[in-house]
Amino acid sequence: MQNLQLLLQAPVFNIQLLLDGMFIGAVFALAAFGMALVWGVMNIINVSQGEFVMLGGFITLMVVQAGLSPLLGIPVAAVVLFVLGWALYRGIIWRIVEADMFTSLLATFGVSIMLQQLMNEIFGADVRTVESGLGIWFLFDGMVTVTQIKVLAFVLSFVIGLALWLFLKTARLGQAIRATAQNARAARILGIDTDRVYAATYAINAALCGAAGALVVMAWSIHPYMGLPYTLRSFMIVIVAGLGNLAAVISAGLGLGVAEQFAGFILGAEFQLAFVFLLLVAVLVARQVMLARKRQYLK
Amino acid sequence: MISRRTMLSASMLAVALALGGMSTTGAKAEDCSITLGAAVSLTGKYSTNGKHTKNGYDLALKVINGKGGVKVGGKTCKLAIKYYDDESTPARAAALAERLIKQDGVKFMLGPYSSGLTKAIAPVTEKHKVPMVEANGASRSLFTKGYKYLFAVLSTSEQYLKSAIELAAENADKMGKKPNELTIAMAIENDPFSQDIRAGVMEDAKRFGMKIVIDDKLPKELNDMSATLTKVKALKPDILVVSGHAKGAATAVRQVAEMRVDVPMMAMTHCDSAQIIKKFGKDAEYTLCASQWAPTLKYSDSYFGSAMDFAKLFEKTYGYAPPYQAAESAAAVLVFKDAFERAGTLDPQKVRDALAATDMMTFYGRIKFDETGKNIAKPMVLYQVLQGKYVVVAPSKWAEAKAVIPRPKWSERK
Predict the structure, then answer these.
(1) What's the CATH number for B31-155+296-368?
(2) Does the pLDDT value for residue A88 go beyond 90?
(3) CA-CA 20 to 30 A from B337: which of A145, A216, B181, B321?
(4) Closest to B150 in 3D by CA, of B326, B332, B362, B340
């Protein structure tokens, strides 16, 4: 309660929390785009989502170690992850597309453990960060600070979200993806190579996560065991936003980020993630109640 | 085809001869050998520190054997260590300890890396009455269970940031306050080890009458402290205490600089494993760091020489400067050697009693165990990052320089 009073007395700190929450939320949304896509199109909950984010971070680290600009890490991570996603589909995922959800959960969980240990073997368990080389803005007499890399992350999430939306609406492959999501069997009958659509969907998901990871390593930090919270947050965002609505994904992501920051401030850092799950339960209950009311109307 | 086969058999013969030769000459040169068992983390999340631990053990082994080995009751014994990889998981560590003792017949154990794994192994060594000297399990809870065969060369966790609070009290006037007017913000990870550190800070704060204004427990999944640091900005405490392994240290140094959080003192643990100087350069300046050991300390012994000599030898051997995890691991082997020689026998019970009576000076500091098995003779030291180097600033007996308190505001730094 004391902390709540603090926010009322010095409203400037609200701005800091709001901004930080929106920046981190945008990155959550980026990873959640991919999860919504894979879930909606292939009916797979990809548990290795967080590990793709982590891989994106390590690839950026390699880009920097090779003496290149860290910002180049964003496209490089996306491209490398796209290829990896495609390869994973051809190696593993294609076998589980038609299988029940339990099998796909187990398989992607296996992939996540494998990637974790692989990165641990190669890079060690240390926490890594990369300096973006961008500066910091000071607002309100230095009371509010904004690192430019976080702003870039925020803008980029919107741009990528928009690009993805356009791609799904207008591009040939995008339309094929939507058709497959609606009815895979019908799509196949109409001559869509659904196998290729699935591969592309999974690869796009990995690429989105890779870009998110590049932003995470520059704005925050990464290590081989960081994946799970990112997977869970993506899951939560998709649950709240639904599968077919990218705008809802981005607003759920931002909302989640902001909620986390305020919970961390008011209740203490130990409740920052706990609050997220509380929120998840609340949203699910609320949805259930609303749906039940709708069903009563239909009766 | 024939030539290949002859070559093969010839080489096999050569190997056999070499092996045979080795064993015969070996038998002549030494009267006996003592095998210490160790499960260390070579893979999994502790692999970095597990490597430091193993390197420390190996270097001590090399030095002791190089100086003639261990003299036990008229015989000269060579030391050896049998390693297994515990994969950073407690269940695996416990199973491997069981295997080392029962199948491999190991009578003496060296500790693994981390409090959690030590906690898993200690009941096993205790059950089989096998003495274990450990160097990397600092959790206070290890020493409240009445273990008789567990000895730790390092300072326990609740002492980690004690000297930081004492330093704050000493320097209260520089911050324009009395010691009991100082306020503390704590951001400490939510795991047993870090919470022990928190308990130590709380105790000391109480002793000086300091007030704790922020008490955040960071979840281990979190790589963002900005909510906590915003609170620090709002409440303006005099001391910010951070402890959350390497991740906590790295996150705090980075975000305190990014958010321009001005606080007169910032003290944390795990600075060297997070490599804050190398990674964050100027942003790490003036950070106070708790450490078990520092190469600049004036401790010395007859095996490694001074702390600095150890550091040089280690760097020459492994190509990197020794973190304290390596130093304390090497010290654990020295403790065993000392105990073997004083016991004059390899009977585990007698060696255990000799270990309990240990009182020796090493390059790592003085080692003397209390009845619970923890080292009570060596203080924690506190570094400050000054001009890109760790400089010991507390306790005053070993200090190389005076601590810079309060640290300059971000707006005044160039």
Answers:
(1) 3.40.50.2300
(2) yes
(3) B321
(4) B332
Among chain B residues, the shortest Cα distance to A6 is held by B234
- CB contacts of B250 in chain A (<8 Å) are 127, 129, 221
Q: What is the mean pLDDT of chain A?
A: 90
Q: Best mutation site among B41, B190, B212, B224 for testing chain A: the one with the most A CBs within 10 Å?
A: B224
Residue in B305, B162, B173, B347 with CA at minimum distance from that of residue B241: B162
Per-residue pLDDT for B119 more than 60?
yes
Lowest mean pLDDT among B30-39, B200-209, B318-327: B30-39
* Closest among B234, B173, B238, B243 to B212, alpha carbons compared: B238
Helix then strand count (H, E) for chain B reads 13, 17
CA distances from A81 to A53, A118, A227, B166, B207 (A): 9, 15, 15, 50, 54
Q: What are the pLDDT digits (tens) for B269-327?
A: 988 878 888 888 899 999 999 998 888 888 899 899 999 999 999 999 999 889 889 99
Which of the residue ranges B77-81, B216-220, B343-347 would you say has the lowest mean pLDDT? B216-220
What distance in Å separates the CA atoms of residue B162 and residue B381, rounded to the nearest whole number? 10
ipTM of the complex: 0.84
Q: What is the CATH classification number for the domain harbouring A81?
A: 1.10.3470
Answer for the pair B36, B109: CB distance below 8 angstroms, yes or no.
yes
Does pLDDT of B25 surpass 60? Answer: no
Give the count of domains, chain A: 1
Burial of B377 (0-12, 13-18, 19+ CB in 10 A): middle
pLDDT of residue A134: 84
Rounded Cα distance, B142 and B122, in Å: 8
Range of the domain at A266: 2-298
Chain A residue with CA closest to B246: the answer is A127
Distances (CA, A) of B57 to B36, B39, B294, B329: 10, 12, 18, 6
Handedness of CA A86, A92, A94, A96 (dihedral sign): negative
* Residue B176: per-residue pLDDT: 87
Please return the burial class of A188, using the count of CB atoms within 10 Å of its CB with bins 0-12, 13-18 and 19+: middle
Residues of chain B with CATH 3.40.50.2300: 31-155+296-368, 159-291+380-412
Counted across chains A and B, CB pairs separated by less than 8 A come out at 113
> What's residue A44's pLDDT?
92
Of residues A13, A125, A221, nearest to B223 (C-beta): A221
What CATH class has B159-291+380-412?
A: alpha beta
- Residues from chain B that touch A272, judged by Cβ atoms under 8 A, are 219, 222, 227
**In this structure, how many other beta carbons lie within 10 angstroms of the beta carbon of residue B274?**
29
